[in-house]
Amino acid sequence: SALTSGDFIPWPTEEAASYRSSGYWAGITFGELLARRAAESGDRCAARDQNRSLTYRQLDDSASSFATGLRDLGIRPGDRVMLQIPNRAEFLEALFALFRLGAVPVMCLPAHRHAELAAIAEASSAVAIVVAQDGVGFSYVDLAQRIRREVPTLRHVIAAGPATARALSEAGADFGDLYLPAVEQPAPSAGAVALLQLSGGSTGIPKLIPRTHDDYLYSVRRSVEVCGLSESSVYLAVLPASHNFTLSSPGILGALWAGGTVALTEDPSPSSAFAFIKETGTTITALVPPLARVWVNTAERSGAPGLETLEVVQIGGARCPGELAARIRPALGARAQQVFGMAEGLVCYTRLDDPEDIAVGTQGRPMSDRDELLVVDEHDRPVEAGASGHLLTRGPYTIRGYFRNPAANHRSFTADGWYRTSDIVSVRPDGNLVVVGRAGDFINRSGEKLSPEELEQHLLRHPLVDDVIAVGMADEMLGERTCVFVVPSAADTAPSLTDLRTFARQNGLADWKLPDEARVVREFPKTKVGKASRADLRAILRG
Ligand code: J2J
After folding, report:
1. Tens digits of per-residue pLDDT, 77-100?
2. Which residue range forms the structural domain that includes residue 398?
3. Does ligand 1 come within 6 angstroms of the Cβ of 347?
4. Is residue 364, in this structure, part of any structural domain at all?
5. Which atom of ligand 1 lies nearest, measured to the CA of 339?
6. 190 CA to middle of ligand 1, Å?
């Protein structure tokens, strides 16, 4: 199951050579990054969660022991290994173990359930899954075991907890000479795939995003510059650690690149998070708009003592209303930075010294001078300067294709390598982008993306459902919420919202994908070609 060059579409040779010779791609792997920091500043705090903290040296040692343990299970460079660990220090131990081994972590979210994990296991042909050894009211291990029984390639379930790395190194000591001390496989090369990110809102076959060490670390290094991270930075991961925003913009990996500290918490509620910010001296964190709103509301109502160290609050994942961005500084005492990014690549930031109208009213500008942007109409013709249109992009850290997915590649990339973002934007004369809408069909619920088709496919199996269409509707809190229009199979026995939610959950869908609202209709409005019209249903919701 080794990763072959046919599994991902490389950048054209000329571009790759140019990114390398100009130093954008620095030829460093994430495993080497950690080794360097451990050698230079081993006693500094690399990571801490609610229970423990790890110096750079300890994290490096843990990653090595963990990597050795994985290797002894037969996991090889290029093998895909699913990673599903919430915001705890062991997330980093496992992630860097995989980097060090050259195995490819597949960045699952803690909220993923059977439907998602099974599909990801199939699409990635993962050989193992590393999960948290315990969860609250839910067993990651039990679910992972079930997936292992169902998916032939998946041979191992590894439960990671605070003591796992140490146990592995002690097991090694017990084996004495039989146990090979360090990972002696050739070090992975920087041009290799470092990890597989997940595309939001995929249907059926998940879209896996192959990011190389070279391109991903470039995006992290450049983000560190733009966001001004240094050795004294403390980055708080409060959104899921594996999400591209939290991991790389500049996120967890940025804090480690800068030699700073990563703080990880599983509890985003203001009471818990504010106390942890105080305890850790957090300087920067990243939020989705609905969570930012909860924090701001709480701080406006009851004050937020102890946030003095907080310098920057990043907001991204979904459009941040200007009104909310403007309230960040008065409420939280920190600068607001808008981040418009995507796991496929391109990330735009407002800059820390931008004037208020840019910081509040735009989604920022590309981080790299080598990012290429094109705004086009339905026929791929460039629109007039300043007009809105579909955003296409290419550049040193934007992928050229999904992992083993020619059908998705055909839809999402042009022949000359532009990625079709599905976002509708306009570019202001000052170069900053305003995201005005979206052409793609996914629903952006609180920054978590879901595909209406995926939800529909699950709900269609409900015995009382004859037909169903899911659409996003504007929601003040969530940005969008999910409304399903249901045509019941018998007029007098329509399923309730609770029925549908329970059914979808039992079908193994992640919680954020469950419908928020259900409306019963006799039939759907039809388009001219006789297809059910999502646009008309959206119009009904707008009233
Ligand atoms: C409007 N829409 C936004 C924003 C993302 C940094 C930040 C976010 C992501 C992310 C990321 C938006 N305003 N500020 O990976 O590194 C919507 C767009 C985009 C899609 C990508 C990062 N920020 N979006 O959210 O892969 O529609 O990445 O195309 O999850 O989220 O989603 P995702």
Report:
1. 999 999 999 999 999 999 999 999
2. 369-438
3. yes
4. no
5. 14
6. 26
